[in-house]
């Protein structure tokens, strides 16, 4: 977990520090000064949840009594809470710390980011910018992919609910690599892909006649559902049965 010190408790009605987080599309709803939409916030993959006790009412947190919470759960929970409770307030500090309370009279719940866990990729075009990536699948096979192919994979990965390869969430790691995490059964814990920035080759070669991707991007570890323009599956992809 991150080495950020345990956050101090904040009394009821005392303003929360940080930039306000919003989920609605109309920024004039009672917001003075800078704000950050959840679609553009750097949400870490893992947080330590710290429940405060300085308010008049109990803090509302993710789950019940959980100390470690997943960033995707924090993201979904904040969106739901901020969208439903109009009196709620969430703020992100410069160091990524998130504080939330349902009303000014509630206690504060704080989310301390684990910076080593990476951040959820919610804007691939600006977060994943290398021209080429060295992609390694769960079988240890390494291939060179274009940056656009990695962003395509992220787009598939981020579907809600996740569908298709790799059916999980994409995390941008501190070293600018991308880690594709499983999204739950039937995906095994070992089925993790990583993509590290690499030098772009002089040529990617002729595109595949069926899927139009370069041959170096044919996923030899698992079928990824790329299709031809007419919707027929590309026969160049090797499929291996997945196990839980």
Brief description of this entry?
12% of the residues lie in helices and 23% in strands. The chain is built from three helices and 13 strands; from the N terminus they run E-E-E-E-H-E-E-E-E-H-E-E-H-E-E-E.
Structure in words:
- This protein has 244 residues and is of the alpha+beta class.
- A hairpin with a 5-residue loop joins β11 (168-172) and β12 (178-182).
- The chain has helices at 71-84, 124-127, 147-157; strands at 19-22, 36-37, 46-51, 68-70, 89-92, 98-101, 109-113, 119-120, 132-136, 142-146, 168-172, 178-182, 193-198.
- The protein has a seven-stranded mixed β-sheet with strand order 2-1-5-6-7-3-4, with helices on one face.
- It is 12% helix and 23% strand.
Uncertain segments are 227-231, 238-244
Mean residue pLDDT: 80
Strand order of the largest sheet: 2-1-5-6-7-3-4
Distance between the termini: 28 Å
Tell me the major beta sheet.
7 strands, mixed
Shape: elongated
Radius of gyration: 21 Å
Please give the structural blueprint:
Layout: E1 19-22, E2 36-37, E3 46-51, E4 68-70, H1 71-84, E5 89-92, E6 98-101, E7 109-113, E8 119-120, H2 124-127, E9 132-136, E10 142-146, H3 147-157, E11 168-172, E12 178-182, E13 193-198
Parallel strand pairs: 1-2
Antiparallel strand pairs: 1-5, 3-4, 3-7, 5-6, 6-7, 8-11, 9-10, 9-13, 11-12, 12-13
Features:
6-stranded antiparallel β-sheet, alpha+beta, 3 helices, 23% strand, 12% helix, elongated, disordered C terminus, 7-stranded mixed β-sheet, 244 residues
